[in-house]
Design brief:
By secondary structure, the protein is an alpha/beta fold. It has eight helices and eleven strands. A hairpin with a 2-residue loop joins β10 and β11. The structure holds adenosine-5'-triphosphate. The site of adenosine-5'-triphosphate has 11 residues, from α1. InterPro entries: AAA+_ATPase, ABC_transporter-like_ATP-bd, ABC_transporter-like_CS, ABC_transpr_LolD-like, P-loop_NTPase. This is ABC transporter ATP-binding protein.
Length: about 240
């Protein structure tokens, strides 16, 4: 594990994880308060980045900016060759659908659907020819993450099982970028440890660029690089320890 400075530059991981270049990023509240100020962040494709910091430090704000969920009004956020600051909301949504898998805290699962159908949901937005392959990958990810009886509605799943379905869905889509917000929240220690091993193992095997916000130091310790935020800005060197 190293801090974010001094990364060698590489455009893409083994299977195309996108490189990230953030420059002069400032995110403000609707009233103009600076919520996040990130002068520079560069990650080679396929890097696993952990983002930590106290509550209110700006971690979720960063994740939203990286996902293109908010407009990039000041600075640039570049994934590979795509500069999110040059895209409108529709362009960012299209980029997100194609390139970014998201594991967010509310999981965004549909209770009326089975685990299988939730995990295979991205197939709905793919060309017909790709759908069967994605469904097969979703089924394999669910098994790989230790879930069985996946024809059952996720309404009856535990919090940890729902988290696994959300991860299976994000991984099955094969996106080159994975963004995770507190992926081990609501899990007990043993389940969290298993999830950390699965998530990092699968991301590394696929060459995915993973950015995970977490208070869980065991997850942070498994990442390649760590960004510590406080009061909406990066904390460097000894301050971050
Ligand atoms: N739309 C908004 N308007 C005003 N303030 C906001 C807005 N969104 C976020 N904030 C503030 O920005 C700061 C950073 O919030 P953020 O959710 O990014 O923190 P965090 O580090 O993810 O915290 P936590 O660990 O508690 O989830 C907080 O003080 C929050 O209240």
């Amino acid at each position: 594990m190293a801090d974010t400075e001094g990364c060698a530059d590489r455009e893409a991981g083994p299977s195309g994880g996108l490189a990230l270049r953030v420059s002069g990023l400032t995110v403000r509240s609707p009233r103009g308060r600076v919520l996040l100020s990130l002068p520079s962040l560069e990650l080679p494709g396929g890097t696993l980045l952990g983002v930590r910091g106290p509550s209110g430090a700006g971690k979720s704000t960063l994740l939203h900016a990286l996902a293109g969920l908010s407009a990039v009004a000041e600075g640039t956020v570049r994934w590979g060759d795509t500069d999110l600051s040059r895209l409108d909301a529709e362009g960012r949504a299209r980029f997100r659908a194609d390139q970014i898998g998201m594991i967010f805290q509310d999981f965004l699962l549909f209770d009326e659907l089975s685990a299988q159908d939730n995990a295979a949901l991205p197939a709905l937005f793919r060309p017909r020819a790709e759908r069967a392959g994605l469904r097969a990958r979703a089924a394999a990810r669910l098994v790989g993450l230790g879930l069985s009886d996946t024809a059952r509605s996720v309404a009856s799943y535990s919090g940890g099982e729902r988290q696994r379905v959300a991860i299976a869905r994000a991984l099955a889509a094969g996106a080159p970028v994975l963004l995770a917000d507190e992926p081990t929240a609501s899990l007990d220690r043993a389940a969290a440890d298993r999830l950390i091993a699965d998530l990092t193992g699968m991301a590394r095997a696929a060459g995915t660029t993973l950015v995970a916000v977490s208070h869980d130091e065991r997850l942070i310790a498994r990442m390649d690089r760590v960004l510590t935020l406080a009061d909406g800005a990066p904390v460097t060197g000894a301050q971050a320890a």
